[in-house]
């Protein structure tokens, strides 16, 4: 068994693995996709002490740093269940989708989060046929075309700014009466000639011609009127959902699905810690996820030296 078994290979999981391995204890990381959300990110300018980097570059550096240590990196492995120890000090089991299972004296959960979907007619049908969630991955596919970005938070406004440089025209659609993004992003957005912003608008349907997106409909929330925009692409940027479905019933989660942790990263199960976007820790950012991952690993080490194995 591992002394520390990390589930999730984003910034939180990578930091946890490095901190654990540096204690000289047997450490493993199982991740569906090593690098996590960082792989889908382009410019990163708030990773402290690094003025500017890019997601794939940072993800590669994360993996390299982990591999500097004796850590078992098990990439492309999806955890499907967490089995708490039969009694305190016992092994914790993590079941994998491939039928295997891994065991740890402690476990650190760092499975991150993913983008929320709109759940309107046409969205699922036209996913990857015009409906996209990752502007950095799919933006170039819409070169010279018209797109909408759904959501006026930081990610939506960032996406609109990004896409405006690639596509012919961007319509940003926000449900609320005003955008929620940082003022500096909003200023940038409003300075761009090929972006329209529509507020108080609820997207109601994605229209397609059977093979690709041709438009969307939204309800003007002030007048109640239904309006239609012709376009080729829709980028959905309306929030994050924690990747914790597999933990339901096994561990305490909030109604939103976030893993409840205390200031040390301890969850409701002794020996199980958690870190990053999957948890209740506020503000989902790389630097925060890394700090939380480091903290969870130190807490796990602290737990190990105080617990008699059974
Ligand atoms: P994640 O990065 O989500 O990693 C989760 C890991 O868990 C992945 O390896 C995933 O494959 C794995 N996993 C999930 N479920 C399972 C499972 N069941 N079994 C096994 N493994 C699983 N933050 C910034 O600080 N600055 C930015 O500029 C910035 N820009 C961003 C831009 C985009 C487009 C996105 C998507 C995010 C951005 N963020 C940014 C946020 C930042 O990427 C996240 O806060 C950070 O990656 C969270 O790290 P994490 O380790 O908690 O989770």
State the end-to-end distance.
13 Å
The major beta sheet can be summarized as: 7 strands, mixed
Ligand roster: flavin-adenine dinucleotide
Which stretches are low in confidence, meaning pLDDT under 50 for 5 or more residues running? Answer: none
What amount of the residues lies in strands? 25-35%
Shape: elongated
Q: Strand pairing plus helix content: what structural class?
A: alpha/beta
- Over the alpha carbons, how many angstroms does the gyration radius reach? 21 Å
Question: Total number of β-strand segments?
Answer: 19
Give, in order, the helices and strands: EHEEEHEEEEEEHEHEHEEEEEEEH
Mean pLDDT score, rounded?
95
- Fraction of residues in helix: 10-25%
Number of helices: 6
Cofactor: FAD
Domain FAD/NAD(P)-binding: 2-293
Organism: Azospirillum picis
Keywords: Disulfide bond, FAD, Flavoprotein, NAD, Oxidoreductase, Redox-active center
What does this entry show, briefly?
The protein has 310 residues and is an alpha/beta fold.
């Amino acid at each position: 068994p591992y002394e520390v078994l990390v589930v999730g290979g984003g910034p939180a999981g990578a930091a946890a693995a490095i901190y654990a391995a540096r204690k000289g204890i047997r450490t493993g990381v199982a991740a569906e996709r090593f690098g996590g959300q960082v792989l889908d990110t382009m410019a990163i300018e708030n990773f402290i002490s690094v003025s500017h980097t890019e997601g794939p570059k940072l993800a590669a550096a994360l993996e390299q740093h982990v591999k500097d240590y004796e850590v078992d990196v098990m990439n492309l492995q999806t955890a499907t269940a967490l089995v708490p120890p039969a009694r305190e000090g016992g092994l914790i089991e993590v079941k994998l989708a491939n039928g295997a299972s891994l065991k740890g004296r402690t476990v650190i959960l760092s499975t991150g989060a993913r983008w929320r979907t709109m759940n309107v007619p046409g969205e699922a049908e036209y996913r990857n046929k015009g409906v996209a969630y990752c502007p950095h991955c799919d933006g170039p596919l819409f070169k010279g075309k018209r797109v909408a970005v759904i959501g006026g938070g930081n990610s939506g406004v960032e996406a609109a700014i990004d896409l405006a440089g690639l596509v012919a025209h961007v319509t940003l659609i926000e449900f609320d009466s005003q955008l929620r993004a940082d003022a500096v992003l909003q200023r940038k957005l409003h300075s761009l000639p090929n972006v329209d912003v529509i507020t108080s608008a609820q997207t109601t349907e994605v229209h397609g011609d059977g093979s690709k997106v041709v438009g969307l409909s939204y309800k003007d929330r002030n007048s109640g009127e239904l309006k239609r925009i012709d376009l080729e692409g829709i980028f959905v940027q309306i929030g994050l959902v924690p990747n914790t479905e597999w933990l339901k019933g096994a561990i305490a989660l909030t109604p939103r699905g976030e893993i409840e942790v205390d200031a040390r990263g301890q969850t409701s199960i002794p020996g199980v810690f958690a870190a990053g976007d999957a948890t209740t820790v506020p503000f989902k950012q790389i630097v925060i996820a890394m700090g939380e991952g480091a903290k969870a690993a130190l807490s796990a080490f602290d737990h190990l030296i105080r617990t008699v194995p059974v």
